[in-house]
Amino acid sequence: MLVVDKGNEQYNNEFFYPWEAKRTSISYYRIQIRAMHQDKCVGAIVCKLDIHKKMARRGYIAMLAVDENYRKLQIGSSLVKKAIRAMVRGECDEVVLETEITNKPALRLYENLGFLRDKRLFRYYLNGVDALRLKLWLR
Ligand SMILES: CC(C)(COP(=O)(O)OP(=O)(O)OC[C@H]1O[C@@H](n2cnc3c(N)ncnc32)[C@H](O)[C@@H]1OP(=O)(O)O)[C@@H](O)C(=O)NCCC(=O)NCCS
């Protein structure tokens, strides 16, 4: 059970609910989960599940973002954990994502959850910043 306090505001598990987890083809799923505070969406994660190199069932985290005013409340971590649970149910072998090598909050979040630095992708982003590919092996 997740309970987060910030001043007078308190969030619990009801704060989070599945937005959409829909199957779009036999080998491809899309997972989207958002974090709500009252009527406001304050965080979201978007992922896909597909087959990598005809071998591994790969979960890919395409987007994760938390509203600036709601950061450091474990909302991002909770969204990633929920997405990983959906990927486990989808029998994924691994989860991967890319993040800027300079993105300390994201690196801390993912490394706390057991992701490892798998590859450095030089000048991966349009702004010239390198990316790190992070990976979590599920089995
Ligand atoms: C990255 C992001 C999603 C983190 O969301 P969040 O809800 O604040 O994350 P959490 O509260 O779950 O924090 C996870 C860990 O990261 C750390 N962290 C969060 N923000 C941090 C910051 N600005 N500096 C250093 N560490 C930070 C937290 O302390 C926590 O580690 P701890 O438990 O050891 O203290 C959020 O900062 C964001 O939306 N950034 C912009 C978009 C982005 O970069 N997305 C990721 C792209 S892959």
Automatic annotation (TrEMBL):
Keyword flag Acyltransferase: yes
Record GO terms (molecular function): protein-N-terminal amino-acid acetyltransferase activity
Pfam families per UniProt: Acetyltransf_1 (PF00583)
The organism's place on the tree of life at top rank: Eukaryota
Keyword Glycosyltransferase tagged: no
Cellular compartments per GO CC: NatC complex
Keyword list, A-Z: Acyltransferase, Transferase
Domain spans labelled N-acetyltransferase: 1-139
Family: Belongs to the acetyltransferase family. MAK3 subfamily.
PANTHER family reported in the protein's UniProt record: N-ALPHA-ACETYLTRANSFERASE 30
Designated name of the protein: N-alpha-acetyltransferase 30-like isoform X2
Origin species: Acanthaster planci
Lineage, top ranks: Eukaryota, Metazoa, Echinodermata, Eleutherozoa, Asterozoa
